[in-house]
Amino acid sequence: MKFATYRSAGVVRIGAVDAARGRVFDLAAAARRAGAPDRAFASMLDLIDADDAGLDHARGLLERRAGETDLWSALSDVELLAPLPEPRQMRDAMSFALHIRQAARGGKAMKALMTGGRAAFEAAMAAPLDDLPSVYREIPIYYITNRLTVAAPGATVKWPRYSKVMDYELEIGVVTKRTRANIAANEAGGHIFGYTIFNDFSARDRQAIEAQGRLGPAKGKSFDGSNAMGPWLVTPDELGDPRALKVEVRVNGAARAKGDTREMLFSFEEILAYVSQDETIRAGEFFGSGTIGNCCGLETGRFLESEDTIELEVDRIGILRSRVTRED
Fold this sequence. Notes:
Elements: E1 2-8, E2 11-18, E3 23-26, H1 27-33, H2 44-49, H3 51-65, E4 72-74, E5 79-80, E6 89-93, H4 97-116, H5 118-125, H6 135-138, E7 142-144, E8 150-151, E9 156-159, E10 166-167, E11 170-176, E12 192-200, E13 202-203, H7 204-211, E14 227-234, H8 236-239, E15 246-251, E16 254-260, H9 268-275, E17 285-288, H10 297-300, E18 309-314, E19 318-326
Parallel strand pairs: 6-17, 8-14, 9-19
Antiparallel strand pairs: 1-2, 1-5, 1-14, 2-3, 3-4, 6-7, 10-13, 11-12, 11-17, 12-14, 15-16, 15-18, 18-19
Helix pairs in contact: 4-5, 4-7
């Protein structure tokens, strides 16, 4: 199933999405009509907390009441929100070797740009790639990001005033279910509620400065709207293999990059198992995959301009659209 958070008639609702027909099914309204409890459909976190019982309830309502047309709304008539507007925690990994190697070169090029100008930047981007540091094959590398700066599908993200170089990053991500520490890798699949698309917006010039402090991203990746997510959550049974997805980036309708998810260094199950070592992972947390190779400007040398519209498309999930605008 696909689950969305949306606003209709001023009310935030949880719905099951029929993407092929461009419509969404009001689960809480369906439950009330059936004389059943609707607590699981008060928010996406409530649905996640309801676990398999909530999912079974949603499936049953859809199977029995899908023919009741007044329970459906056209997606064009509602306001899609981020599927999980305020995750309980957000982490983002570095799972794709090509991105890690190209981003390292791009980081050097950003420093060259700030000290030597465009020519120095181009020269640095033409340099050969370094080998992948061995640590990336040894453990899943990740950082904790800002769970309070999530942007909805279609949102306009304001370009931070302290930055001149704005970038997109195409990732996929999972939202967890069930609260537990020390999750075994062979059991971690049972802790994945659903998959979505993630645009990890980055202020690259500020990130290049912060990287010299060796403490991880700060204002380079933390500003209002910096974590765009959507358009909905797709359950594992519907998505299938997350390492067999084709992806594409378009900017203002023109293809900017294509790729796939085949070469993740660690699966989401392995990432969950690693992070949960002596640490409780709660239902409703978000884990990003890290950027897929070629799918950000830092890798290719092409960044965003004010008023650009970015579309991130992922097989079997959908399209996440965002727009950036420079503040005065």
